[in-house]
Amino acid sequence: MLASGFTHAPISRLLVVGVVVTSFLASLTDTKVFAWIEVRPHLWEYGQYWRVFTWQLCYTNSTEVLFAAMTFYQLRVIERLWGSRKFASFLLLTFFYSAFLTPFILIAVLRPLSFGRINYLPAGPTPLLFALLAQYHAVVPYIYKYRVSGSTSSSDQSTGILLTSKATSYLLPLQLALSQLPGSALAAAVGWCVGIAYRREILQGAVRWRVPTWLVAAGYEQKERYNHLRRRMEGEVAAGRATGVERDGGSGNAGGEDQARRRGVVGGLFDQFRGA
User: Is the separation of the CB atoms in 37 and 55 below 8 Å?
Assistant: First the structure.
């Protein structure tokens, strides 16, 4: 049975609520001007280096808030696959990596190449969203493919654009990446690259780091319950296999080999979804 809502996804619920609440509070207290980064004057003239840690905390307009909340809700499946502890660890690592990498690329690369014209980095957790989107792209398979074409002939299969069932999942994030060019595209690109680097274990030591258990105690206890149920089921399967061998040695061995083979395939798929 498919889980609905934020079942088994407490960190995703916190993300969605946080995106809405922080933007609302920034509007209510009139502090949106402290959210984004302008290299000049914020960093060079005013010395407001603390903006490096705050520019990902909230969005500054309602359209971005809506698109981000809907996308984070859709990406809650990653937390269900990984577990809350690994999910929270990934978010913290992505936050700190993108907090420094994005302004650094803006200052050291884009600004000199544009002769100072590219000076603005919009606020919002766009890097977090695209880092999660990279995991979604890697681990969630598509269900079907379809072709979008302007041709009226059903026999012409070579024209048009071939899409998958996941194509619509990228429309809202694409809107965020294009909302405040070029800064929004830079933030999206950095987040995607950090997500790919995490998955390919390029970030040495960071992949195996986890937040303390007490930070995600509820999710950890839930995971332990599932592990207990899994161990019980494996024990029952082993007991049933032993009973089948005693009842019929030849057919029991053949059935056991088939079941072990199927378990290997299922186990491999399970490890893939866990990101192992």
Answer: yes
Residue 144 belongs to a domain: yes
Spell out the alpha helix ranges (H) of the chain.
10-28, 51-54, 62-74, 76-82, 84-105, 111-113, 126-139, 171-177, 183-199, 217-247, 249-274
Give the CATH number of the domain where residue 200 resides: 1.20.1540
Q: Is 147 within 8 Å of 157 (Cβ atoms)? A: yes
For residue 168, tell me if it sits in a domain. Answer: yes
Which residue range(s) make up the domain with 92? Answer: 10-151+159-215
pLDDT for residue 53 is more than 60: yes
Question: Per residue in 55-101, pLDDT tens?
Answer: 999 999 999 999 999 999 999 999 988 888 889 999 999 999 999 99
Distance CA 193, CA 176 (A): 16
The total domain count for the chain is 1
Whole-model pTM: value is 0.75
What are the beta bridge partners of residue 147?
162
